[in-house]
Amino acid sequence: MSNRFKRIISVILSVAVAAMITACGSGNNDHIMTDSAADAAGSVSDTTVIGFSQLGAESDWRSANSESMREAFSADKGYELLFEDGQQKQSKQITAIRSFIQQGVDYIVLAPVTQEGWDSVLLEAKEAEIPVIIVDRMVETEDDDLFTCWVGSDFYLEGRKACEWLHRYAASQGLSGNDLHIVNIQGTIGSSAQIGRTAGLEEYSAKYGWDLREETPGDFTQAKGREVMAQMLVTYNNINVVYCENDNEALGAIEAIEAAGKHAGPDIAGGDILIMSFDGVNQTAINYCLEGTIACIVECNPLHGPRVENIIQTLQNGGTPDKLEYVSETLYSSYETVREVRIDSETYPVTLLTQDVIDTRAY
Ligand code: GYE
């Protein structure tokens, strides 16, 4: 029996009981249904209940993502969105999913903080016959049937695009691989965004002989980005590239670089520290990219609300959504030197960042 059907039956039963109580109590057979019972019956028939376990509120990307979900699943469109903030803790997310199961929601949407450790709770949802849609980061499960489908970004591709851009940019400046002294401010360790972006950097560092000095977590936040950058500037005196796994970390890194009396910019040979980043959501970061303080941003699109809604519509209509849906994304730079990057014989254009491009972006 589907959850929706179970909920309908349970409300019908409570409506019937309420009707009996009203009928017995008043002795007036004209009004056999209470107002609240009638409301309940009405809302069950046309409201789709979504339990959304969001992983936290660490970045501008995350805020835009939460907003997109809230807009897509608004009450006036016939949805009830149960939004739970996991505050970066997998245990909190698991508790939220269990409570969604108990409440008999129609769909569970999960934005998982890390990749591993979801099998048991996903099995519980499966046994309760509630479809689970994974959004943004990925889950690593023993059996892919434990979730219905996933929509998000190819983080490994994002990482490789960034690195290929760096390789070409460095070559255009007459620099070779061993001239690049790189530090990586990583995202939340164990999240697919971190795993993919770090994997891209490690692969290309080995491939092009880059001096990858240190990789250290910045938890995707500005405060941690600033803190770890300040420390690394003390430890190493030759850093000339900072690979930030999101924009918020990049903002923190720039603050630390400036506080240390150094300059964030693209002129490595002239002593600048070149900043690379991911997302392109935070407006200050985008403006920094426009003026060259951040040399390149690999876009990561947060607007998953409408995509998840499409998936739910497909399921409602008895269809089968694609198991994996990758979002296509661009790469921004205000330097014209690199116009495209090639990865696995695919060519990806670099979007030249201008004010016009900024004005026409959706976020
Ligand atoms: O890049 C970062 C956020 O999982 C794609 O998480 C997301 C990442 C995003 O905190 O800013």
Main features:
363 residues; alpha/beta; 8-stranded mixed sheet; 6-stranded parallel sheet; 12 helices; 14 strands; 44% helix; elongated; binds beta-D-fucofuranose
Number of helices: 12
| Strand order of the biggest β-sheet | 7-6-8-9-10-12-14-13
Number of separate strands: 14
The termini sit apart by 41 Å
* Uncertain residue ranges: 21-44
Name the average pLDDT: 91
Strand content: 15-25%
Major sheet: size, sense and barrel closure? 8 strands, mixed
The hetero molecules present are: beta-D-fucofuranose
Described by the principal axes of the CA atoms, the overall outline is elongated
Report the helical percentage.
40-55%
Query: Structural class given helices, strands, pairing?
Result: alpha/beta
User: Order of SSEs, N→C?
Assistant: HHEHEHEHEEHEHEHEHEHEHEEEEH
Rg, rounded, reads: 25 Å
Structure characterization notes:
The chain is α/β, with parallel strands linked by helices and 363 residues long. It is 44% helix and 19% strand. Strands 7-6-8-9-10-12-14-13 form an 8-stranded mixed β-sheet, sandwiched between helices. It has a 6-stranded parallel β-sheet with strand order 2-1-3-4-5-11, sandwiched between helices. The protein starts with a helix and ends with a helix. About 7% of the residues have low confidence. Beta-D-fucofuranose (GYE) binds next to α3 and β9.
